[in-house]
Amino acid sequence: MGKVNALIVAGGKGKRMNSDKSKQFLNIQEKPLIHHTLEKFSMCSDIDDIYLVLPEDEVRYFEGDILKRYNYSKPIIIVKGGRERQDSVYNGLVSMKDCEVVLIHDGARPFVSDDIIKDGIRYASLYGGSAPGVKVKDTIKVIDEHGFSKATLKRDELVAIQTPQCFKYSTILEGHNYIRENKILVTDDTAALEIIGHKIFIYEGSYDNIKVTTKEDLTIAELIINGR
Protein backbone atom coordinates (compact mmCIF):
# COMPACT_ATOMS: atom_id res chain seq x y z
CA MET A 1 0.00 0.00 0.00
CA GLY A 2 1.16 3.51 -0.79
CA LYS A 3 1.47 6.30 1.73
CA VAL A 4 -1.34 7.90 3.67
CA ASN A 5 -0.61 11.63 3.68
CA ALA A 6 -2.21 14.62 5.35
CA LEU A 7 -2.52 17.79 3.28
CA ILE A 8 -3.13 20.74 5.58
CA VAL A 9 -4.17 24.01 3.97
CA ALA A 10 -3.32 27.08 6.04
CA GLY A 11 -3.99 30.28 4.14
CA GLY A 12 -6.27 32.28 6.45
CA LYS A 13 -5.38 35.93 6.90
CA GLY A 14 -7.30 36.70 10.08
CA LYS A 15 -9.31 39.60 8.64
CA ARG A 16 -12.39 38.59 10.63
CA MET A 17 -10.19 38.51 13.73
CA ASN A 18 -9.13 42.13 13.18
CA SER A 19 -5.57 40.86 13.52
CA ASP A 20 -2.40 41.66 11.60
CA LYS A 21 -1.24 38.10 12.20
CA SER A 22 -2.64 35.26 10.09
CA LYS A 23 -5.16 33.25 12.07
CA GLN A 24 -3.16 30.02 11.87
CA PHE A 25 -0.44 31.73 13.92
CA LEU A 26 -2.72 33.11 16.64
CA ASN A 27 -2.29 31.44 20.01
CA ILE A 28 -4.62 29.04 21.77
CA GLN A 29 -3.28 28.53 25.29
CA GLU A 30 0.07 30.04 24.34
CA LYS A 31 0.61 27.74 21.37
CA PRO A 32 -0.08 28.64 17.71
CA LEU A 33 -3.34 27.33 16.28
CA ILE A 34 -1.50 25.61 13.43
CA HIS A 35 0.67 23.73 15.94
CA HIS A 36 -2.42 22.19 17.57
CA THR A 37 -3.57 21.02 14.12
CA LEU A 38 -0.19 19.62 13.05
CA GLU A 39 0.19 17.82 16.35
CA LYS A 40 -3.06 15.88 15.83
CA PHE A 41 -1.86 14.44 12.53
CA SER A 42 1.71 13.96 13.71
CA MET A 43 0.48 11.84 16.62
CA CYS A 44 -1.78 9.65 14.44
CA SER A 45 -0.16 6.28 13.78
CA ASP A 46 -1.90 5.91 10.39
CA ILE A 47 -0.37 9.07 8.87
CA ASP A 48 2.94 8.87 7.00
CA ASP A 49 3.81 12.40 5.84
CA ILE A 50 2.28 15.83 6.42
CA TYR A 51 2.18 18.41 3.63
CA LEU A 52 1.53 21.95 4.86
CA VAL A 53 0.44 24.55 2.30
CA LEU A 54 1.29 28.13 3.30
CA PRO A 55 1.29 31.51 1.57
CA GLU A 56 4.77 32.11 0.17
CA ASP A 57 5.37 35.14 2.40
CA GLU A 58 4.69 33.11 5.57
CA VAL A 59 6.97 30.14 4.96
CA ARG A 60 10.02 31.71 6.62
CA TYR A 61 8.02 32.69 9.70
CA PHE A 62 6.64 29.17 10.08
CA GLU A 63 10.06 27.56 9.66
CA GLY A 64 11.71 29.87 12.18
CA ASP A 65 9.02 30.34 14.82
CA ILE A 66 7.13 27.04 14.79
CA LEU A 67 8.90 24.21 12.97
CA LYS A 68 12.13 24.73 14.95
CA ARG A 69 10.30 25.17 18.25
CA TYR A 70 8.18 22.01 18.23
CA ASN A 71 9.20 18.43 17.62
CA TYR A 72 6.86 16.61 15.25
CA SER A 73 7.13 12.86 14.89
CA LYS A 74 6.20 12.93 11.18
CA PRO A 75 7.94 14.69 8.29
CA ILE A 76 6.39 18.08 7.45
CA ILE A 77 6.83 19.14 3.85
CA ILE A 78 6.06 22.80 3.16
CA VAL A 79 4.32 23.70 -0.11
CA LYS A 80 3.71 27.21 -1.40
CA GLY A 81 0.03 28.07 -1.82
CA GLY A 82 -1.83 29.35 -4.85
CA ARG A 83 -4.30 32.13 -5.55
CA GLU A 84 -7.43 30.20 -4.54
CA ARG A 85 -7.78 27.46 -1.95
CA GLN A 86 -8.24 24.84 -4.69
CA ASP A 87 -4.99 26.01 -6.31
CA SER A 88 -3.24 25.48 -2.96
CA VAL A 89 -4.70 21.98 -2.67
CA TYR A 90 -3.58 21.20 -6.22
CA ASN A 91 -0.04 22.37 -5.44
CA GLY A 92 -0.01 20.05 -2.46
CA LEU A 93 -1.37 17.08 -4.39
CA VAL A 94 1.16 17.28 -7.22
CA SER A 95 3.98 17.52 -4.66
CA MET A 96 3.24 14.01 -3.39
CA LYS A 97 4.78 10.73 -4.52
CA ASP A 98 3.65 7.15 -3.84
CA CYS A 99 0.48 8.36 -2.11
CA GLU A 100 -2.54 6.08 -1.88
CA VAL A 101 -4.86 8.02 0.44
CA VAL A 102 -4.78 11.75 1.16
CA LEU A 103 -6.60 13.67 3.89
CA ILE A 104 -7.23 17.33 3.06
CA HIS A 105 -7.70 19.37 6.22
CA ASP A 106 -8.24 23.00 7.20
CA GLY A 107 -5.29 24.34 9.16
CA ALA A 108 -7.76 26.25 11.32
CA ARG A 109 -9.47 23.07 12.62
CA PRO A 110 -7.25 22.20 15.59
CA PHE A 111 -9.61 19.80 17.38
CA VAL A 112 -9.89 16.96 14.90
CA SER A 113 -9.82 13.66 16.76
CA ASP A 114 -7.79 10.54 16.10
CA ASP A 115 -11.02 8.62 15.47
CA ILE A 116 -12.16 11.10 12.81
CA ILE A 117 -8.78 10.81 11.06
CA LYS A 118 -8.73 7.01 11.13
CA ASP A 119 -12.38 6.66 10.11
CA GLY A 120 -11.74 8.97 7.16
CA ILE A 121 -8.85 6.83 5.96
CA ARG A 122 -10.90 3.66 6.25
CA TYR A 123 -13.93 5.03 4.40
CA ALA A 124 -11.81 6.67 1.69
CA SER A 125 -10.16 3.29 1.05
CA LEU A 126 -13.59 1.66 0.76
CA TYR A 127 -15.50 4.30 -1.21
CA GLY A 128 -12.93 6.55 -2.84
CA GLY A 129 -14.03 9.64 -0.93
CA SER A 130 -15.31 10.44 2.55
CA ALA A 131 -15.85 13.42 4.84
CA PRO A 132 -16.98 13.92 8.44
CA GLY A 133 -20.17 15.85 9.09
CA VAL A 134 -22.58 16.80 11.84
CA LYS A 135 -26.34 17.29 11.76
CA VAL A 136 -27.34 20.95 11.65
CA LYS A 137 -29.01 22.22 14.81
CA ASP A 138 -30.86 25.19 13.35
CA THR A 139 -33.66 25.40 10.82
CA ILE A 140 -32.23 26.40 7.44
CA LYS A 141 -34.14 28.81 5.20
CA VAL A 142 -33.65 29.60 1.53
CA ILE A 143 -34.08 33.33 0.92
CA ASP A 144 -34.67 35.38 -2.22
CA GLU A 145 -32.65 38.36 -3.43
CA HIS A 146 -34.75 40.69 -1.26
CA GLY A 147 -34.12 38.82 1.97
CA PHE A 148 -37.51 37.08 2.24
CA SER A 149 -37.72 33.35 2.98
CA LYS A 150 -38.99 31.23 0.13
CA ALA A 151 -38.36 27.68 1.38
CA THR A 152 -37.54 25.71 4.50
CA LEU A 153 -35.15 22.82 4.08
CA LYS A 154 -35.66 19.51 5.86
CA ARG A 155 -33.26 19.59 8.77
CA ASP A 156 -32.93 15.80 9.00
CA GLU A 157 -31.51 15.78 5.45
CA LEU A 158 -28.85 18.41 6.14
CA VAL A 159 -25.28 17.88 7.29
CA ALA A 160 -22.57 20.45 7.99
CA ILE A 161 -19.42 19.10 6.35
CA GLN A 162 -16.07 19.30 8.11
CA THR A 163 -12.52 18.24 7.37
CA PRO A 164 -10.43 16.17 6.89
CA GLN A 165 -11.96 15.27 3.56
CA CYS A 166 -10.37 11.97 2.66
CA PHE A 167 -9.77 10.45 -0.76
CA LYS A 168 -7.96 7.89 -2.78
CA TYR A 169 -5.13 9.98 -4.16
CA SER A 170 -5.65 9.13 -7.83
CA THR A 171 -9.37 9.93 -7.58
CA ILE A 172 -9.05 13.40 -6.00
CA LEU A 173 -6.20 14.29 -8.37
CA GLU A 174 -8.51 13.43 -11.27
CA GLY A 175 -11.19 15.70 -9.79
CA HIS A 176 -8.79 18.59 -9.29
CA ASN A 177 -7.36 18.20 -12.78
CA TYR A 178 -10.90 18.40 -14.16
CA ILE A 179 -11.92 21.57 -12.30
CA ARG A 180 -8.56 23.14 -13.12
CA GLU A 181 -8.84 22.42 -16.84
CA ASN A 182 -12.46 23.61 -16.96
CA LYS A 183 -11.92 26.66 -14.71
CA ILE A 184 -14.57 25.56 -12.19
CA LEU A 185 -14.49 27.15 -8.73
CA VAL A 186 -15.49 24.86 -5.84
CA THR A 187 -15.98 25.55 -2.14
CA ASP A 188 -14.52 22.27 -0.94
CA ASP A 189 -12.74 19.19 -2.24
CA THR A 190 -15.72 16.83 -2.14
CA ALA A 191 -17.31 19.01 -4.83
CA ALA A 192 -14.38 18.29 -7.15
CA LEU A 193 -15.34 14.62 -7.06
CA GLU A 194 -19.10 15.16 -7.24
CA ILE A 195 -18.60 17.14 -10.44
CA ILE A 196 -17.00 14.12 -12.14
CA GLY A 197 -19.68 11.75 -10.87
CA HIS A 198 -18.30 10.33 -7.61
CA LYS A 199 -20.36 10.06 -4.44
CA ILE A 200 -18.86 10.95 -1.07
CA PHE A 201 -19.49 8.85 2.03
CA ILE A 202 -20.41 11.09 4.98
CA TYR A 203 -19.47 9.73 8.38
CA GLU A 204 -19.90 11.09 11.89
CA GLY A 205 -17.84 14.16 12.76
CA SER A 206 -17.80 16.13 15.99
CA TYR A 207 -19.25 19.45 17.13
CA ASP A 208 -15.84 20.12 18.72
CA ASN A 209 -14.18 19.93 15.28
CA ILE A 210 -14.73 23.66 14.70
CA LYS A 211 -13.06 25.90 12.17
CA VAL A 212 -11.57 28.90 13.97
CA THR A 213 -12.60 31.95 11.96
CA THR A 214 -13.71 34.71 14.35
CA LYS A 215 -12.70 36.07 17.76
CA GLU A 216 -15.67 34.21 19.22
CA ASP A 217 -14.23 30.98 17.83
CA LEU A 218 -10.99 31.61 19.72
CA THR A 219 -13.00 31.86 22.94
CA ILE A 220 -14.79 28.59 22.11
CA ALA A 221 -11.44 26.99 21.31
CA GLU A 222 -10.12 27.87 24.76
CA LEU A 223 -13.23 26.32 26.32
CA ILE A 224 -12.81 23.12 24.29
CA ILE A 225 -9.19 22.74 25.43
CA ASN A 226 -10.09 23.45 29.05
CA GLY A 227 -12.90 20.92 28.84
CA ARG A 228 -10.49 18.26 27.67
From TrEMBL:
Nucleotidyltransferase found in the keyword field: yes
PROSITE patterns in UniProt: ISPD
EC number, UniProt record: 2.7.7.60
Domain of life: Bacteria
Site (Positions MEP for the nucleophilic attack): 155, 211
Pathways per UniProt: Isoprenoid biosynthesis; isopentenyl diphosphate biosynthesis via DXP pathway; isopentenyl diphosphate from 1-deoxy-D-xylulose 5-phosphate: step 2/6
InterPro entries: IspD, IspD/TarI, IspD/TarI_cytidylyltransf_bact, ISPD_synthase_CS, Nucleotide-diphossugar_trans
Gene Ontology BP annotations: isopentenyl diphosphate biosynthetic process, methylerythritol 4-phosphate pathway
Pfam family of the protein (one): IspD
Keywords attached to this entry: Isoprene biosynthesis, Nucleotidyltransferase, Transferase
PANTHER family named among the record's database cross-references: 2-C-METHYL-D-ERYTHRITOL 4-PHOSPHATE CYTIDYLYLTRANSFERASE, CHLOROPLASTIC (PTHR32125)
Matches recorded under NCBIfam families: ispD
The protein's name: 2-C-methyl-D-erythritol 4-phosphate cytidylyltransferase
Gene this chain is encoded by: ispD
